[in-house]
From TrEMBL:
It comes from Methylobacterium soli. Belongs to the Cu-Zn superoxide dismutase family. Residues 97-116 are annotated as: Disordered. Pfam families: Sod_Cu. This is Superoxide dismutase [Cu-Zn]. It catalyses: 2 superoxide + 2 H(+) = H2O2 + O2. Binds 1 zinc ion per subunit. Binds 1 copper ion per subunit. Its cofactor is Zn(2+); Cu cation. It is an enzyme of class 1 (oxidoreductase).
C-alpha cells in the first residue's frame, strides 16, 4: 500500500488537467463469448466417472474437471492433452497417442526445454475419489494448433503424479481415464 502513495499523489496533481481534455469514452466492445466444449470422462472399464468442461477465450483455455466419488484413486494425478481423440481402447488408452506437441519440445511444465503443448498441472483426487479442479492452457480449442484438429485430442488422466520434468511423461504411469475432444 505504501508503494502506491507517491503514484496516487501524482495522479491527484494531474487529474484536473486530464479531466479538461477528456473526451467521451468510446463504448467498450463486448468481449466475445468463450467457445465452450464438454465431454464425458471414462475409466478403463468404460464407465463414466465425470466430465471436462472447457471454455476457450481470446488468450487462454480454461478446463474444469468434475469427477464423482469413486471415480479415481485418491491422491495426485498427472493429466495431459494427448494428440488423438480416440479413447476406444479402454484398457490402455494408447490410441490417444503421445502428448499434444507441435514444436517437438521436451515434456514438462518445469523442464527448461519444455513444455509440450499438452502438458497440464496435476489434479488431486479426494479420499472419496472425487475431483473438482480447474486448470488453464495456452493451447487453443480450435484453429491452428487447436485441440479440435483433424483427428481431435484426448484428455488423459494418469495413475500417478507428473513430476513435470522427466521424459516422456513425468513418471505419471498408466492411463486410467480418457475424454475425447473432437
Ligand atoms: Cu498423458
Ligand atoms: Zn508432455
Amino acid at each position: 500500500m505504501t508503494r502506491l502513495l507517491p503514484i496516487l499523489a501524482v495522479l491527484a496533481s494531474v487529474t484536473p488537467a486530464l479531466a479538461q481534455k477528456a473526451e467521451a469514452p468510446a463504448a467498450p466492445a463486448a468481449p466475445a463469448a468463450p467457445q465452450t466444449f464438454e465431454s464425458e470422462i471414462r475409466n478403463n472399464k468404460n464407465e463414466p466417472i465425470g466430465k471436462i468442461m472447457i471454455r476457450d477465450g481470446a488468450n487462454s483455455l480454461v478446463m474444469r474437471l468434475a469427477i464423482q466419488a469413486g471415480g479415481l484413486p485418491p491422491g495426485w494425478h498427472g493429466i495431459h492433452f494427448h494428440a488423438v481423440g480416440d479413447c476406444s481402447d479402454i484398457e490402455k488408452f494408447e490410441k490417444s497417442k503421445a502428448h499434444v506437441n507441435h514444436d517437438q519440445s521436451k515434456h514438462g511444465l518445469l523442464n527448461p526445454d519444455g513444455p509440450d503443448e499438452g502438458d497440464l498441472p496435476n489434479v488431486y483426487a479426494n479420499a472419496d475419489g472425487s475431483v473438482n479442479a480447474e486448470v488453464s492452457s495456452e493451447t487453443p480449442l480450435t484453429g491452428e494448433g487447436g485441440l479440435k484438429d483433424g483427428d481431435g485430442s484426448a484428455l488423459i488422466i494418469h495413475a500417478n503424479a507428473d513430476d513435470h520434468s522427466a521424459q516422456p511423461i513425468g513418471g505419471a504411469g498408466a492411463r486410467i481415464a480418457c475424454a475425447v475432444i473432437k
